[in-house]
Structures are given as structure tokens and as C-alpha cells.
Amino acid sequence: MDQLFERYYRLIDTISLDFFRGYAGTINWKARMIGIRGARGVGKTTLLLQYMKRNFPRDGSSLYASLDNIWFSENRLTDLTDRFVKQGGHYLFLDEVHKYKGWSQELKNIYDGYPDLKIVFTGSSLLEIRESRVDLSRRAVVYNMRGLSFREYLNLTLGLELLAVTLEDIISSHLDHAQEILKKVKPLKYFSTYLKSGYYPFFLEVPELYFHRLEEIINLILETELPLLRKVEIENVPKLKLLLKILAESAPFIPNIVKLSERSGLTRNTVISYLGYLEEAHLENNLYKNAKGITRLQKPDKIYLENTNLMYALSPVGINTGNLRETFFVNQLSENHVIEYAEEGDFLVDGRFVFETGGKLKGFDQIKGIRNSFVAADEIEYGTGNRIPLWLFGFLY
Question: Tell me, what's the pLDDT at 4?
Fold first, then answer.
């Protein structure tokens, strides 16, 4: 166990406290068990280590351990916990729990057996908190973590402290919010860079290797996490990659499951299941005309890549500006809102608001006469009336 403490303290020494994700303030850190799910690369490990560095002295009361550490090849998590608690430990932070076989059962046993211990764990966005044998949802408070919003990107790159705004505030007072933000920064100066390479926090580390690392993350999800956590057959992984390539080249689009099945070599039901897995893995967003009561075998009405950076990583040639705008809008609003495919306009949000996206000259013809309808317009700093700057929707979280 000493080597785990040594690694923990070494990591703490390297972690910066210059920038904090907004997620840190939304988590109820007082809960006995906290789960944080998210795609690889969005900053879960950094979030844990920053919280620990700010809140715990190096007195043995807290411990961070990544469960993909080779130490766990010969040691059990329950044994570590027992030793940790007996030596005065109170706060256990566990990273990459999905890499540890039987993690959910052992966490349940630890929760039940050590009532004074607080546990925080992170894992893949595919992490199944509810399962028939072990249901951690009754014990753990679970949070889902996404990549950087446009607001967080500006704060991180420029050292600003721009605040998030709600969708209702944007709709009712977008001019006031835009004016306040424009006093501090010119958003359009940085918007295109964010769309290309600003969603994952590691863009700061080695910028020239950003897309190489992003491709590695995509391959890890397809080749390791989906077979491990969704039982995708290994022989189907190349077909899954082909399916994602087809989606990347075509998205956003209205899927024809029969044609997707023929091109990918997968059965119809397998294609639909895989589309659901890709959304769970935060590689795509699936939109439906009615988001209530969606089943695993219901085909999406429209498919988008999960974020605009994936567009540049998977299909960088000939990116359509309109598709880029729509993908950004869906990505930023998906964090806290329900987005549905709309018959009129581009999107129905929370069952109340209809949005159409477009350039600075985009008109209201397609949503004329529709109540609570708005245009999210690119290339403008300020909006007027129901025309709202597209970039401002990047301030929702």
C-alpha cells in the first residue's frame, strides 16, 4: 500500500490548481459514495486530484488509486480498503474502476462494511451503475462528465472567470449577457479553434499531438471499452469502426438502418444496438422525435457526432459549416436539456423551444409562426429579438 501512497503524493505534486471544471461545484462531496462517469480525456482524474489537493493534508486520511495499476493484479480492492481504514483512512478515491474485475460487487461490500468511509470513484461513460446482480444506484450519487464547454475553454485558455448562464436567461436576456461577456473577450476570435480542438482538456499538453491522442481514445473505446462493458464481439470491432466511419462522413443525417446494415455487414438489430452504444460512449448523439420511452431497438431519427472535435478527427475533409453549427448546438445543450428532432425547425428543446441554426443572415422562414421559436446565428456578436448568437449557447455549463 505504501507504493500507492507514494504514487498519490507524486501525482498531487504535479497537479495544477489554476483552473477548475465547473463540475467540481455541482458535486455533493458530502455523499458517502460518489460516482463520476465520462469519456476518456474529459478530465475526471484531474478533477479528483484537484479536489484532494485542495481539501486533504498528507496525513494518511485520504488515498487516490487507479484500479488499472499493476498493484491490483496481485491485491484485492477490499483488502486495500481494510488496511486503509485500520490505519486511519477516511476518504478513498478510486479511478478507472471499470478496469477492475468485479468492481461493483466489491464497492457494494465496502460501502456496506465500512460506514465511516467515504468513496469517490470514476469510470467510463459506459459504466453500468444499475445491473441485475449489483445495483449501486441506491448507494452512489452518480454524475456524468462531458468535455469542455466553450465557456470553460475560454476560461482555461485566457485565465478568465466567465460565469455560466441558463437557457432561460439566454432566451430572455441574451443581449445583456452578450454585452457583459464582450467586455472581457471577443468570443468569435476563439470560436473556430474551440470547434476544431478545444473540447478535450488535454489540448493544452502537446497541441500538435491533439488529434493523434483523440484517435487513440476513439480506438480504446471501440477496441477495449465496448467489448469489455457492452460485450461487443471482438470480431465485430472492425465492423463497428466502419459504422462509425460511415456516420462520421455522413452526420448529421437521417439514418437508413437497412443501408447501414448492408454497408457495415451487421444485422439490423445489431446496428441499432451499436448506435446506442456509441451514444453511451460519447461518440455520437442520437435524436428522436419523442425522447420519452426510447427503447434500445428504436432507431434514431437523426444522428450527430458527440462533439465538433470528433468531426475533425474522423472526417476532416470537407466539413460542412451547417453541420458544424448543429453539432455544436446539440453538444452544448445535451448537458442539461432534452433535445428532440423537430419536424419544423432544427431542434425542439425541453418540449418548449424550437431552434433553427444558421449563419449571420439566417432568416425565420422555416420557423415562421411557431411559438417560442428562435434562430441560433453564427458569426454575430450580439443578437436581436429572437435571433441569438450561436456562441452564447456555449455558456450553458
Answer: 96
